[in-house]
Amino acid sequence: MGIFDIFKKREPHYDSTNIQVKDLDVGFVFDYDLATWEVKAIYEYDWGDNYFTREFKITDGKTNQFLSLAEDDELELSISQKVKVRALDDSLTETLHHQQKPPKKITYKGIAYYLENEAPGYFHDIAKGETWEEFRSWDFEDEDGVNILCIEQWDEKEFEASVGKKIKEFEISNILPSS
C-alpha cells in the first residue's frame, strides 16, 4: 500500500446512483409507510443448502421493526414486529416445549394464521462477528399470504414471536446511505 492509497475513498458495495433494498446497511435511511426508517442492525440467517436470508432491525425513532429480505427466484420482503408469545396463546409455550409442534392454526387480533413452514437454522448478528446460534422457526401466513406470523425457539424453553406482512420492493423509497 502506497502513501497515496490512504487518501483514496473506499468504494461502496452498491451503485450510488441506484441504491436498492438489498444494498441496505447499518446507518442507511429509507421511507416506508409515510415514515423515515433507519437501519440499526443487520442479522443473517443460514437455512442450509447455501440459502441465506437477511433481516434489518429498523427504527422510525418511536418503534423498532424488522425488515426481512429473502432472495430465491425473486426478492421477497416483509416488515414485522416482536410480540409476546403468550399474547398469541396462553399455552403456546408449553405446547411447543412439550410437543415440539405448533398448532396448525393461530388466531391473533382477528386474523387466522396457518402453519406454512418449519425450519431449523442458524442466526448471527453481522456486527458481532461469526458466532452463529442455532434455532428453530415456524412460519404462519393468513389465507391470502399477506399477513405473517413467526415463532422461533432459541433454547429448550426460550421462544420469540413476531407478526407482520409481506410488502413489495416499490413500497420502500428514498434509500440513502449513512453520511
UniProtKB/TrEMBL annotation:
DUF4178 domain: residues covered: 26-168
Protein name: DUF4178 domain-containing protein
Pfam families per record: DUF4178
Organism domain of life: Bacteria
Record InterPro entries: DUF4178 (IPR025235)
